[in-house]
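User: Okay, second chain of the day. Same drill as before: sequence in, structure tokens out.
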Amino acid sequence: MTTYNMKADIRAGIHKVWEIVSAAEGYPAWRSDVEKTVTAHEKQFTTYTKDGYSTVFTVTAAEPCRRWEADVETSHVKGHWTVEFTSKGSDTEIDFTGYVTAKRLSARPVGKSVFEKTYLQKEMARFVADLENAVG
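Assistant: Same drill. Structure tokens below.
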């Protein structure tokens, strides 16, 4: 299992940032890697990329304007994301932590941990960049 953390200041109020992040049905409108979202029920949804890759999110905590957590699973990884929101006047700081475990890689710890870290860095950076574009 690999853990990665990223903090970012988003140039929008906390209520707007919360609404965007917590409304999964709106992901295709602002997430560059999401073509569609299918909601299974109130606590679970699946995003699909343009290439058809799916990510299942199972929301485990949703404290409005404070914290959003979800178990995350793809064909390659399984893990958990936590996003904490802090108001900074007209801006919002997000503290984004994720951990994943690769499903299909060999047992070699070095190769597996490099894949996991690269996956987390790429996914979080894209999510934050897309969120910044969505509010701007």
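The longest strand covers residues 77-88.

User: Thanks, on to the next one.
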